[in-house]
Design a protein that fits this description.
Layout: H1 5-24, H2 30-34, H3 42-49, H4 55-60, E1 64-65, E2 76-79, E3 94-100, E4 103-114, E5 129-130, E6 133-134, E7 136-139, E8 149-154
Antiparallel strand pairs: 1-2, 2-3, 3-4, 4-8, 5-6, 7-8
Length: 174
């Protein structure tokens, strides 16, 4: 029995997508699989976060400021605690903003993966990755109550001489 091209494609796409998810350690969204793009790119993340240039839209979507503290080389973190740990390339766990004359300006995104054993000294958890890049960590929480975790920064709205996926961006000013 011969299988037509359309049928082959219909069978192959889910199999390739499943293999990519299982072998890459990259979290994949249902929307990405439906569009035959098993691994959203940074360009996809950039498009998905465009609306967050307006910080009030980010706040309406559940992102809350960690305070007005600007971390030099990172910016002000707005975290979506309901999103944290899902590793969805199109819905970052945190948004990074730089103070500007008009309030704040979106500069990047961050994903946070919780360490399963919650012990910085033992590295028993598999190191997560997105966009083919391993997360930093494990590391202790950055504020009281934040668990041991891994994180990955993407400076998709501000040029970064250290690289888009570097932890620090020397172009971010506080």
């Amino acid at each position: 029995m011969r299988i037509g091209t359309k049928k082959k494609r219909a069978l192959l796409v889910p199999a390739v997508a499943a293999a990519a998810v299982l072998t890459s350690g990259v979290a994949t969204t249902t929307a990405a699989l439906a569009s035959n793009n098993p691994q959203p790119s940074l360009a996809d993340t950039r498009a998905a976060t465009y609306k967050y240039h307006d910080v009030s839209v980010a706040e309406a979507d559940g992102y809350v400021s960690e305070g007005d503290e600007c971390v030099p080389g990172m910016g002000i973190h707005y975290i979506n605690f309901a999103q944290m740990g899902r590793m969805d390339p199109l819905k970052p766990d945190a948004l990074l903003y730089e103070p500007s004359g008009n309030g704040v300006r979106l500069v990047g995104a961050e994903w946070i993966a919780l360490d399963t054993d919650q012990n910085v000294a033992t590295d028993n958890s598999p190191v997560p990755s997105l966009f083919g890049h391993r997360f930093d960590g494990p590391m202790p929480g950055h504020f009281p109550g934040m668990p041991v975790h891994y994180d990955l920064h993407a400076y998709i709205w501000q040029a970064n001489p250290e690289g888009v996926l570097s932890t620090w961006n020397s172009n971010i000013r506080c």
